[in-house]
Automatic annotation (TrEMBL), chains A, B:
Family of the protein in this entry: Belongs to the ferrochelatase family.
Entries under HAMAP family matching the protein: Ferrochelatase (MF_00323)
Reaction catalysed by this enzyme: heme b + 2 H(+) = protoporphyrin IX + Fe(2+)
SUPFAM superfamilies, per database record: Chelatase (SSF53800)
Gene3D superfamilies associated with the record: 3.40.50.1400
Organism, scientific name: Euphydryas editha (Edith's checkerspot)
Pfam short name (any one): Ferrochelatase
Xref: PANTHER family: FERROCHELATASE, FERROCHELATASE, MITOCHONDRIAL
Listed name of the protein: Ferrochelatase
Principal location class: mitochondrion
Function: Catalyzes the ferrous insertion into protoporphyrin IX.
EC number(s) recorded for this UniProt protein: 4.98.1.1
This protein's pathway: Porphyrin-containing compound metabolism; protoheme biosynthesis; protoheme from protoporphyrin-IX: step 1/1
Length: 398, 398
């Protein structure tokens, strides 16, 4: 299992100055920017301390008491352990490699599908490692594009993930005038049919590895990053959107296998959404289940939670100890042609339907009390040129 | 609002002996029984005490300490209050009326669609009021049908609802030999496209009541019965299936409105899945939302939770006090032609795909420790003639 993982990852030497230079040197002036948002992961172990520090001090992602003190302390305390994990998956995270490749293939597709908005060019804005939001937005402005599509790479929306990335864009424009670019936003795409299809194809690849006589009985266990119950109770839509992705995938897959959705990667002492993936593996093993597939359903690239937590900790260790006979882990969408088609389909539909920012995004969670969230929604109304039809009649979008 | 509710309900004089007699007198001998499972509701206030007693002592539905004592005590203490609520919605629950009408229309459709399995005849098996499982199964056997399709009327599966009804069937056959009937099971149908379509049509009916200038901004608030967090953590799939229904409905509806899924009808002091519907109405009102539609997404008939909790308590009282300008409540599917088509589609697909009992049903929740659940799954394997292909190779379905 360990050796197979190295195939997922190759060390990337691109530096950020190179990245921005190559952007400016592009042969044709881009007309449409596709800004791909994601958390990012350390490409080398040197980046681990800063990466952890940024996560631990991002209140959109994680809320700690006295965060400005406790965050850095936890980040520093966990650095060595996290470095070790990245060493075990080949020295760093492949998120940049996959995102950059996806962006290239996506914009090639879009140039063919949508001549009116071509040339399209992709830009990457990560939250916790470079390329950061600020340098990316600067590059987008410098390139003089006509329109920019902010495209979250998390298919399912959570305030902690896409919300955090969008707040970073709002922060950048806080003390700066908006450029003359038509900005629009794709903030969720959990049930795009081609996305469901690529997840189904990734599962089918693994189903084929099981003995034909029991293939129909393999338990398909969808797994996604868990969320604190506090966020669930506030009304974060992430668990519902993940469940909708699971349902859309099973409809595409069209097999009679049993399936479940469970939650991984809980941190800290507070209650999170359960059942947890590792506990579920153990519990099913006790019930006599011997064959299963783990399917990461809420992340489009391989990353530390697939390559280390699922592959090493759960498949190699937990499942083995629990007595599971065969466990496979479905690959992330990565550069699967169906996934590139899915991304292109999402962007093309967005361009064709003319919506600039969805009312679903502008609607806040029922129990949200965050002033940061409130002002961010106001910012996106301005950025994306959204007007309530009759603001005095309705205030349904706040 | 109150007067309009009386339209939903008319007093039903059918007695169960009449019901069973009319079943036996049917002109043509039925070939296929459609057994419609649901909780049922008291048709007259006289039935309230027994109805409550049965709910409060059903450990599949609700778990209380010293349930055999505490259950009856709570039932008796709540009888007067619950009777009063039924009086306020016209004297009783319309669940039987709707289920019986749906069954008649469904079997008429099936007779046309599926001549091979015709004549089809519907039977109703309620959990907490007559007609109970025992008398219904006795009637099915007496009619001498060739096959019987057990069809849960809860589109989304929960161990507390469909699970409880299915356990009642298992109880009936505990000390009795299985009849010579081909039994098969439809235990979930949350994302049937016609079901999503009828929900979408029910929402559209209400959207039309809003001023066209703000129609696109009306908040669509899907609401379903909540679940104790203990059941969520055990792995009950109900919240995911409800979320999948919401997503399928929004895809069918194809409007730009914001939408949310919230949870109603929590009872007792333990933590349940949140946000709660009434709290969400108040919280959105505070945020300035003035227009909304409540959509009961997990029940196919009007019942006390729509007619009293949503219409009287939330729409007439909570929303009014909170300052909501206009709130509408989408009707349940009831006898909408699209809903009858949805039911027929579910049954026809089930018959045509040849599956007798799904592996999804046979798979238990990861943290289930109920011996009753375990033996019930074993019972359905026998009842539906299910064979693991290679039981010695795989035990993936327990």
């Amino acid at each position: 299992m360990l050796t197979s993982m190295y195939r997922h990852h190759s060390k990337i030497s691109t530096t950020w100055s190179n990245f921005i230079r190559s952007a400016s040197q592009s042969a044709q002036k881009p007309k449409t920017a596709i800004i791909m948002l994601n958390m990012g992961g350390p490409q080398t172990t040197d980046q681990v301390p800063d990466y952890l520090l940024r996560i631990m001090t991002d209140r959109d992602m994680i809320q700690l008491p006295v965060q400005s003190k406790l965050g850095p302390w936890i980040a520093s305390r966990r650095s060595e352990e996290v470095k070790k994990k990245y060493m075990e998956i080949g020295g760093g995270s492949p998120i940049y490699k996959w995102t950059d490749l996806q962006g290239k293939l996506l914009t090639q597709s879009l140039d063919k599908m949508l001549p009116d908005t071509a040339p399209h060019k992709h830009y990457i804005a990560f939250r916790y490692v470079p390329p950061f939001t600020d340098e990316t937005l600067t590059a987008v402005e410098k390139d003089g594009v006509e329109r920019a599509i902010i495209f979250s790479q998390y298919p399912q929306y959570s305030c902690a993930t896409t919300g955090s990335s969008l707040n970073a864009i709002a922060d950048f424009y806080k003390n700066r005038s908006l450029p003359n670019i038509k900005f629009t936003l794709i903030e969720r795409w959990a049930t795009n049919q081609l996305l469901a299809k690529v997840f189904a194809e990734r599962i089918q690849e693994k189903l084929q590895l099981f003995d034909g006589r029991i293939r129909d009985q393999v338990l398909i266990m969808f797994t996604a990053h868990s969320l604190p119950l506090k966020a669930v109770s506030r009304g974060d839509t992430y668990p519902h959107e993940v469940a909708a992705s699971v349902s859309a995938t099973m409809n595409q897959l069209s097999v009679p296998n049993p399936y479940r959705l469970v939650w991984q990667s809980k941190v800290g002492p507070l209650p999170w959404l359960q059942p947890y993936t590792d506990d579920a593996i153990k519990a099913y093993a006790k019930k006599g289940v011997k064959h299963m597939i783990l399917v990461p359903i809420a992340f489009v690239n391989e990353h530390i939670e697939t390559l280390h937590e699922l592959d090493i900790e759960y498949c190699d260790e937990v499942a083995k100890e629990a007595g599971i006979k065969q466990i496979e882990r479905a690959a992330a969408p990565n550069d699967h042609p169906t996934f590139i088609a899915a991304m292109a389909d999402v962007v093309a539909r967005h361009i064709n339907n003319g919506e600039t920012v969805s009312r679903q995004f502008l609607s806040r969670c029922p129990h949200c009390v965050s002033e940061r969230c409130k002002s961010s929604k106001e910012f996106y109304k301005k950025l994306c040129n959204y007007t309530d039809y009759e603001p005095e009649l309705a205030a349904s979008t706040v």
